[in-house]
Amino acid sequence: MSQDFEPVIVGFLCNWCSYTGADLAGTSRSRYPPNLRIIRVMCSGRVEPAFVLKALREGADGVLVAGCHPGDCHYQEGNYKTMRRMALLGPLLDQFGIERARVRLEWISASEAGRFVEVVKEMTSRIKALGPLRLGHAQDAEPIAEKLAPA
Amino acid sequence: MGKPKVAFYWCASCGGCEEAVVDLAEGILEVVGAVDIVLWPVALDFKLKDVHALPDGAIAASFINGSVRTSEQKEWVELLRRKSGLVVAFGSCAHIGGVPGLANLYDRAGIFERAYDLVPTADNPGRVHPQTSTKVAEGELRLPEFFNTVRTLDQVIPVDYYLPGCAPPPDLILNAVQAILAGTLPPKGSVLAPAKALCDTCPLKESKPEKMAIKEFKRIATSAPDPAVCYLAQGYVCLGPATRSGCGERCIKANMPCRGCFGPTPEATDLGAKALGALASMVDTKDPDEAARIMAMLPDPAGALYMYALPSSLLQRKKMEAAHG
Questions:
Q1: What stretches in chain B show pLDDT beneath 50?
Q2: For A138, which of B151, B158, B322 is closest by C-beta distance?
Q3: In angstroms, rounded to a whole number, what is the distance separating the alpha carbons of residues B310 and B303?
Q4: What is the pTM (predicted TM-score) of this model?
Q5: Buried b or exposed e, range B48-86, using 16+ CB within 10 angstroms
Q6: Which of A22, B62, B160, B276 could be cross-linked to B84 through a Cys-Cys bond (beta carbons 3.0 to 4.6 Å apart)?
Q7: So what's the ipTM on this one?
Q8: Contacting residues of A for B305, CB less than 8 Å apart
Q9: Are strands B146-151 and B68-70 parallel, antiparallel or unpaired?
Q10: pLDDT given at position A148
Q11: What percent of chain A has pLDDT over 70?
């Protein structure tokens, strides 16, 4: 089962650094696992905690948020705000029984195609080891309280 | 043609919403004079069979408070949905899950174990837990099923309107009743309260600094806030930025930061996540280690951020272990 498991990872990459870094990995013909589904955002600071939770709820096994290195934010402060949100999101996820390794924050610059590839490889293998998150399945799987009628 | 029929029902709730109806004071006479109450368990002796005896759609409006936690509650609200023209989710528990919804950080087995075995006052050597069916000499006794997950009313039946609050304030209740009687209700699905965030109407708004810079989180359990200064600026968790206004700022005026009982503003999908974003952004550090240290001053972020809104949140509950499925 676990050998066949291919995790779905949603990646929110900032337009100015990390998305450009991913683009460079592509144009450089680097190879990395196809598990990451990339969503380009203007800034990692645009990634509201609700985006991460929604991705997990809707079937993602992991979420990567990537932005410019500290001090390099195109909007000066956005990546620091994201760093602080992720610092609180981690303990919150603990309480929901979701392993912290499933949600990861990385700084990847526009020139760091190699680093992008490493992060995707590493994250994919870690989440493969953790197994599927199956949040939706688990939450519907009440033994007696059959799935309630939708609103 | 008689007066419009109205029902009040309670599910997993504390009784505070019933108090809120009584809190209408003289206003309640106006309501009672205009409608015919066909069900109100806290005050009047009607039974399940009385509701069954009504034709479908006979009740003009049912005001249902409490979240849905047992099979009996599910059966009642499904019945009331069939019998009612309008269903109003009354109060935080029916609207967004309420305080009982914090039980979604646990499951049935854990709750039963805690309540019947582990609490210091428990005297249950046989570890007997509630069963849906028990055979005794006289026959079979039955109890409703206790669900693993606490649900909001609209996760069980379609809901037409929402009256938020723990409990809803009298002015909003009267407005809602008058709108129903006069036929001047907003579009279905509306929350019958203002759309602004609480911070917009907060009496401490003027004391809010231009730039928030939280260096530490404080807790009302261990220190009292300055009643004249924005609680967030002082480092107390206040859900005002993400919570709908309309409550009359009752907590703020009692020196208590907002806990979010009115639910999220229309723009916010998830109250706790929105509040988390706002709160963490205000923390004044650029160092990840220091950020982690400051966040650790909040020992129970889920409880603080989702005190009233856990069942209606994106995650809804703690992940269920596979063994239960």
A1: 323-325
A2: B322
A3: 9
A4: 0.92
A5: eeebeebeeeebbbbbbbbbbbbbbbbebbebbbbbbeb
A6: B62
A7: 0.92
A8: 92
A9: antiparallel
A10: 41
A11: 87
